[in-house]
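Problem statement: downstream parser choked on a complex file, so we are re-checking the raw output for the 3-hydroxy-3-methylglutaryl-coenzyme A run. The parser issue turned out to be on our end (a line-ending mismatch), but while we're here, posting the original submission so the record is complete.
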Amino acid sequence: MMLLSKVLNKPSLRRACSSLCSPFTSNIKDQGSSIKGVSMDGAEPRRLSHSANVSRVQQIPLGGSSKILGTDMSRENGGKNASWGQYISRASTASDMTQRVVVSPEVPWVLQARRYSSPCEEMLVKNHQNKLLQRIPEYVKIVEVGPRDGLQNEKDIVPTDVKIQLIKMLAASGLPVVEATSFVSPKWVPQLADAKFVMEAIQDLQGAKFPVLTPNVKGFEAAIAAGAKEVAIFASASESFSKSNINCSIQESLVRYREVALAAGKLSLPVRGCAHFLFIYIAVVLANKTNHLKWLILENMHRYISCVVGCPVEGAIAPSQVAYVAKELCSMGCYEISLGDTIGVGTPGTVIPMLEAVIKVVPIEKLAVHFHDTYGQALANILISLQMGISTVDSSIAGLGGCPYAKGASGNVATEDVVYMLNGLGVKTNVDIQKLLVAGDFISKHLRRPSGSKAATALMKTLAHASKL
Ligand SMILES: CC(C)(COP(=O)([O-])OP(=O)([O-])OC[C@H]1O[C@@H](n2cnc3c(N)ncnc32)[C@H](O)[C@@H]1OP(=O)([O-])[O-])[C@@H](O)C(=O)NCCC(=O)NCCSC(=O)C[C@@](C)(O)CC(=O)[O-]
């Protein structure tokens, strides 16, 4: 990790990486410096301002490679350039980006992004006219589940300080929510037996929310005592999976979760909902170790439903069954319901009817999607979910993940892949993909396996290539 950080901090690579990764609508983050470019005639590099209002770079063929021409979309053909699509697939390396920059003398500009843009993206951002992309939200909240869902399946126990470091790195990347751990039975999930210590270590961490998984009142109370301010409960749309995962039927789990909600209520002052009833605020008075009373605000209760498309035992799950469980959980006073394709068997063909059934009974703004990538369908499923109006997506750094009680479940969709796709769509996430790369590299190296993220793997290769130049 140190090595990667050093490499990423080399000025030339920071420039290259910024250009590789920054989202469509944002400028390069390193505002303190400027970018070197060379003119079309190969003259001396000149300094380029970061503050200029230039929307994209244009690549033109140059001896089998590419070079970059800054253009101003606001001036050029009203932002619609019919030829834009013809050079978008011409990927230049990071070094190409820094060495073959061509400056348009008329307009101030910045080297804004190395993205593979398209007229559709332009239309989305500029005109919102593209029917396919019209419903995609401008901002998507990414819920990072790596430290919990990602690590829970690991056989070798990951040291607590590695988990804490990972959480800190993920929070520092701008992710708004990082699911930190689980307060489940250590007999069932030994990997997360250190939940208390993890939570205590991140008490003062700012900038993100750190929900934890709680399967029952015992877990809920332990989570609150350890300082959790947000909890997630998890039911299943499949009877068999409910039994194998939490040792009870769906109905019993719903009773159990009502008990959790009640326990929260008993400890609480009045429950307050915001204008749209999206949040439950529960003020909890708890005695801490030194018997001093302290106030905690439980801002959110987040719910998962597993096996929303298929179950390892039962096979296909009916959309109506998912809708039933979603409605029940919603009626407990829900903030968010995450629909989990636990074993990653869904395709848009099965995800669409499932979402249609759930959207009929639960407001869409309360829904999140949680895809595992077992069959490589996760990004397609996310895209279709966004097109249907969902704006919260769960993902896991480096594609870590799997459920110990769901045979065949592989890793979650990788956070780096989701951010890369959303950047390409012009959707804001506020996540710095460079920092994600460092976090993914850190945990992959610790687990001694390559990252499960295709985007991270490709970007790292490009960076490695650039670092040799
Ligand atoms: C729910 C139970 C506890 C029932 O397990 P059980 O054996 O039926 O419960 P029990 O009440 O008989 O308790 C057994 C022992 O566990 C203890 N215990 C009981 N509860 C707790 C607790 N909260 N924290 C710590 N200890 C606990 C309890 O005190 C007792 O200890 P003993 O007396 O034997 O020493 C168990 O089945 C369990 O922990 N299951 C969790 C399994 C799990 O974490 N699965 C992975 C998460 S779900 C998932 O990954 C899917 C998701 C969410 O990501 C979405 C998707 O991908 O689709």
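For whoever reads this later: The longest strand covers residues 280-287.
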